[in-house]
Amino acid sequence: MGVIHVHSRASRDCQGTPDEIISAAKEAGLNFLLMTDHNGKKIFTEGMQGTYDGILVIRGAEMINHGQGLLAINIKEFIDGHRMTIQQAVNEIKAQGGLAFIAHPWRFKEWDVEGIDGMEIYDLADSTYAHLWKTPLMLADEHSSDKDLPEEAFLRGPLSRPDYYLSKWDKLTQTKKFVGIAGNDAHQNTVVFGKLLDPYSVDFKFLQTHILAPRLEATALLQALRAGHTYCSFGMLADATGFVFTAGNSSGLLGIMGDDVPYASRPVLVAEAPRDGTMRLYRNGQLIRTEKGNRLDHAVMEKGVYRVEITLEVEEDQYPWIFSNPIYVV
User: Fold this and answer.
1) What is the pLDDT of residue 157?
2) Where are the alpha helices (DSSP H) in the chain?
3) pTM for the whole thing?
4) Strands 327-329 and 260-261
5) Domain 242-330, CATH 3.30.870 — does that match?
6) Does domain 2-233 match CATH 3.30.70.2190?
7) pLDDT tens column, 136-147
8) Average model confidence (pLDDT) for the chain?
9) How far apart are CA 317 and CA 304, in angstroms?
10) What does the alpha-carbon distance between residue 141 and residue 16 come to, in Å, rounded to a whole number?
């Protein structure tokens, strides 16, 4: 379990130190961080890379080109993305053995670019900006609580289903494999009335990306991420560690999230969660099954792209908890 899209003092709009970032990661129970400081040569002299007190950190950059954002994960050298087209930037990322993900999809336009590995299906900053009209309610929750940052403030604010992003993602996964990730966009730089509203500790506990890698090592982690062996969760609601979404038959396991599974094998999809919730199964972006509890079984009757969402009830309202990557039944 870790977070993707993190900024440090190597970014122009952030003063976060490695010690602060690692301390917050340990407090949140994370195993890895994928750093994406704003693009510049400084990343390769001051950016974080390696293992820090048991936390695996992989270096990357956030590139902005005419308002369009790319997360370049695991690049080895500076890429001057401002002087390139999006396609050229992606080509260079891939040439360096990196991964390319779309950041802030609402601003992205060049969806036909080849070589992109996936997209943010949720971005904390985007969701916060989209719900700025709720700021008075969030501040009221904060000031009426004895907590520094009460959970209620996040329930009223950015914790919501990213309808547009999911709709766009569902369309794309019907034409190609396209990995969905959670974007924390962590800066630790938002101060209102003298109070820091986005400390790393809160940001990291709020939202996570789980990568099902065989070991905590950069190559294995990146290979699993590229394959889509991953899911996203709002850990503030509950720890989602242990969630599984698989396809199998009487002969055994056929595949997990991100995999192709042959329709001819008569697969049965199984989703299991570490606690009860409302489980929803989607095929090609359309809801086809709803179950309450912690397990959903579905015998596949049609080819398609299948993924799972789980919501949890808080004070009689439903909030998104888990978004799986798809299993592709072909």
Assistant:
1) 64
2) 18-27, 43-46, 86-95, 124-130, 135-143, 151-156, 163-173, 200-206, 218-227
3) 0.92
4) parallel
5) no
6) no
7) 555 555 545 444
8) 91
9) 31
10) 26
